[in-house]
């Protein structure tokens, strides 16, 4: 189903704050139409992009900073996991306050504010999760069929739990759940020996339970035509560094947008050095020049605007707090320029 975004602003997830109130205030101030819950890795190591989504996973061993998986052991955990999955018991896949202070602060903040049209969550995708998690011997979990199956289902249910919680919280808002897949920036290289079929099947299974808007974030170049055929409603990419790379696939991109898909243009850099000279007008011009190529090739400007969101290029968790504030400020400023110039 086609949606009208018209350069709506949203974020990726991570922020450098330790004060949940500051994080939420920043999000609602600059991203009022599609706020996201903040991931706060500086609050606790358990809010990192891997550890944050491990609750409920069977066979997980956490020894200090070391985390690894045991296939099919202990049996009781694996049995409980698949029973929860088969029964669609979302409580079994909840994220606790211990691993997501930002989630719980965000939920309370949402209750105090005017309902936004969209509300966004995020989860580490099954490819990144499966390649980052290791067996005790060091092999990536993704290459063990039992562990891969578990990881895909874990990501799916963590996403579904967020979506269902949002729907109870804000019945009138559309939910957006984004799967963060930074490792897919290496797809097709010697560093990532994962087949096309495994990427497609894993991601399709992960998004299958979702009922709202589903998207993917990849902060680098990848096989975009492959990603566009999986079934995502939104693809987010680093438009600051890789705009020309995506435009190489103009024909499948036009088909994706014409078919109701949307692009989240990650045009605001999340690098301290790049931020120093960043200006909203220049960033907006980059987007307009890129879009101009698609419009010249026959994609109607109105349709392109409807299928466009504006966001930072990646998470802002590695920045200073002032740097993160600047990123969100620029995101809102760029979107305002594009709405002024391109929305008719």
Structural summary, described in words:
The protein has 344 residues and is α/β, with parallel strands linked by helices. It has a single domain, classed as TIM Barrel (Alpha-Beta Barrel), CATH 3.20.20.210. 44% of the residues lie in helices and 13% in strands. It contains 13 helices and nine strands. The strands form two sheets. The protein has a seven-stranded parallel sheet. Strands 2-3 form a two-stranded antiparallel ribbon. Helix 1 (20-30) packs across helix 3. The radius of gyration is 19 Å and the shape is globular. The model has no long low-confidence stretch (mean pLDDT 95).
Brief characterization of the structure:
The protein contains 13 helices and nine strands. It is α/β, with parallel strands linked by helices. Strands 1-9-8-7-6-5-4 form a seven-stranded parallel β-sheet. It has a two-stranded antiparallel sheet with strand order 2-3.
Strand content: 5-15%
CATH topology: TIM Barrel
State the share of residues found in helices, binned by percent: 40-55%
Note poorly predicted spans. none
Number of E strands: 9
CATH level 1 name: Alpha Beta
Terminal CA distance reads 21 Å
The strand order across the widest sheet is 1-9-8-7-6-5-4
> What would you call the quaternary organization?
single chain
Cα shape: globular
Overall residue-averaged pLDDT value:
95
Attribute tags:
344 residues; alpha/beta; TIM Barrel
What's the topology here?
Layout: E1 8-9, H1 20-30, E2 60-63, E3 66-69, H2 75-86, H3 101-112, E4 118-124, H4 126-132, H5 145-169, E5 174-180, H6 196-207, E6 213-218, H7 224-228, E7 234-237, H8 239-247, H9 250-258, E8 262-268, H10 272-276, H11 280-296, H12 301-306, E9 308-312, H13 321-342
Parallel strand pairs: 1-9, 4-5, 5-6, 6-7, 7-8, 8-9
Antiparallel strand pairs: 2-3
Helix pairs in contact: 1-3, 4-5, 5-6, 8-11, 11-13
